[in-house]
Q: What sequence folds into this?
């Protein structure tokens, strides 16, 4: 598996955001992407365990449900699941045959950047989790019309806002301060994404930091895993369980 | 459990303890401040609960210190946008909605932090947004205003991020700080992209490497870091063909308090 293109798709380099760069990129995702069944994170070693492991590792229950695990590992798996979803989504968007005609140059740059950022988050978490990680998930984007700007951008907005709320809510659930900092480093990037996508949908309005997500105290959402997983589950074929994640 | 023990659980400041005792006395739960009993404690509980936001958010001197630091930065941003919105001819009408929304949030952050800190809040600072003349046209030249706005927002994001670890002992304070932090990041993204459009620069919503785009470089020092939780993104084989630009954009970096204070110091006339 190799990612054969560099991310230099900036407005100042008009040639790099064209089909060539993307075509090279598609090698990364392989033929399965075209077939619509993408297993994006490769094979991990989550195993079938009858009981929760002491190290909090993910496991696959007998009915096939993927249990995210417990403690900090569980929270990292929770984040890893969301990043897999986001990365898969933007890969589908960028790979779409009408990508060039559906979006402006600025929009293509944003969507391509978001794809690389989410891939970076995903691969970082995968590496950090090692054999304690969940397997690669199979996304279910049957509710998304990738030939519709409205559907794609609306879904992007949902995913980015959900990601922001998820990381904000998960901060207090982490025990290791180093992971808390990593979460902080990622969540502000997700918030930057959310603002950009919202501004693309409704330019120069207040929506980038809209009253629908920011409350009267000027607070963004902070969501608990149960709420986030319920929102994410329809986009994931495997059943995900956060039953052993920390709660407080 | 007596009243003192109850108040100790909440780790109240002496001022807040005195206030609760005073309320308890006025309501006849206790006759004098030194009367502590379980009955008085339970009777006072509803009073204490009304203090919960303040109590929970200002549990210790170190947390008070972090919140006062945040309050300083929020005052800076609030006053900066207020002055800009009041400067006729500075912000084009089509861009006012954005800055009105940002100002609204910064003002809300100030009010929240003031109420969380209660009597422990620091004095309202006095600012000089020209930084002694360095940005003399901050409120007459839109490009200069946008440069400062970008610098303040990106620095604000880094400042909150840098304090997350110091708030880990207090769940609700940490969560509140994270909720403010991501709003600052939304602002930063919008201001950066807006500035790029208005000044014909290529500025993305996210920070590439440690590029400062003409804002003070100190605001972006270290943003090109790729080491996270002890691991380098450059050591992950599946990311070997992802550019450094993307890797550095994907992770924002914290700034320590002394680094942030050094950045904002030129803008502060009075108050730390």
A:
């Amino acid at each position: 598996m190799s990612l054969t293109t560099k991310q230099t798709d900036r407005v100042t380099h008009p040639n790099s955001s064209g089909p060539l760069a993307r075509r090279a990129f598609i090698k990364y995702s392989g033929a399965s992407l075209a077939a619509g069944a993408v297993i994006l994170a490769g094979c991990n070693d989550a195993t079938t365990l009858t009981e929760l492991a002491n190290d909090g590792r993910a496991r696959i229950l007998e009915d096939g449900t993927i249990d995210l695990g417990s403690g900090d590992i569980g929270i990292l798996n929770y984040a890893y699941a969301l990043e897999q979803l986001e990365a898969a989504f933007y890969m589908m968007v960028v790979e779409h045959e009408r990508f060039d005609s559906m979006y402006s140059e600025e929009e293509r740059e944003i969507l391509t950047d978001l794809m690389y950022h989410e891939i970076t988050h995903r691969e970082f978490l995968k590496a950090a989790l090692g054999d304690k990680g969940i397997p690669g998930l199979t996304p279910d984007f049957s509710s998304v019309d990738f030939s519709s700007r409205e559907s794609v951008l609306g879904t992007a907005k949902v995913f980015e806002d959900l990601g922001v709320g998820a990381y904000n809510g998960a901060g207090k659930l982490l025990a290791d301060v180093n992971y808390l900092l990593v979460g902080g480093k990622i969540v502000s990037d997700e918030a930057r994404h959310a603002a950009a996508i919202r501004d693309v949908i409704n330019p120069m309005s207040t929506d980038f930091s809209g009253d629908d997500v920011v409350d009267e105290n000027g607070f963004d959402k902070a969501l608990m895993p149960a709420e986030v997983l319920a929102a994410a589950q329809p986009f994931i074929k495997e059943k995900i369980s956060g039953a052993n994640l920390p709660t407080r | 459990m007596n009243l003192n023990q109850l108040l100790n659980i909440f780790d109240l400041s002496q001022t807040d303890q005195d206030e609760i005792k005073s309320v308890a006395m006025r309501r006849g739960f206790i006759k004098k401040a030194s009367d502590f009993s379980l009955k008085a404690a339970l009777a006072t509980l509803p009073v204490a609960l009304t203090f919960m936001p303040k109590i929970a958010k200002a549990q210790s001197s170190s947390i008070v210190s972090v919140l006062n630091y945040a309050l300083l930065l929020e005052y800076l941003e609030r006053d900066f946008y207020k002055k800009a919105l009041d400067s006729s001819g500075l912000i084009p009408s089509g861009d006012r909605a954005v800055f009105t929304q940002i100002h609204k949030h910064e003002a809300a952050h100030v009010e929240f932090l003031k109420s969380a800190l209660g009597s422990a809040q620091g004095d309202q600072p006095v600012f000089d947004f020209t930084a002694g003349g360095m940005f003399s046209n901050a409120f007459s030249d839109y490009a200069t205003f946008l440069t400062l706005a970008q610098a303040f927002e990106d620095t604000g994001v880094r400042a909150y991020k840098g304090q997350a670890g110091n708030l880990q002992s207090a769940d609700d304070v940490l969560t509140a700080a994270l909720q403010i932090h991501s709003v600052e990041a939304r602002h930063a993204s919008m201001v950066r992209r807006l500035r790029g459009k208005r000044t014909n620069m290529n500025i993305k919503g996210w920070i590439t490497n440690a590029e400062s785009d003409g804002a003070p470089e100190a605001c972006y020092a270290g943003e090109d870091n790729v080491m996270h939780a002890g691991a380098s993104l450059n050591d992950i084989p599946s990311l070997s063909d992802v550019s450094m630009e993307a890797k550095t954009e994907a992770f924002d970096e914290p700034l320590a308090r002394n680094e942030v204070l050094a950045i904002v110091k030129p803008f502060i006339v009075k108050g730390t």
Notes: The first strand of chain A starts at residue 59 and ends at 60. Residues 199 and 205 of chain A are 7 Å apart (CA to CA). The radius of gyration of chain A is 18 Å. Residues 1-44 of chain A have pLDDT under 50 and may be disordered.
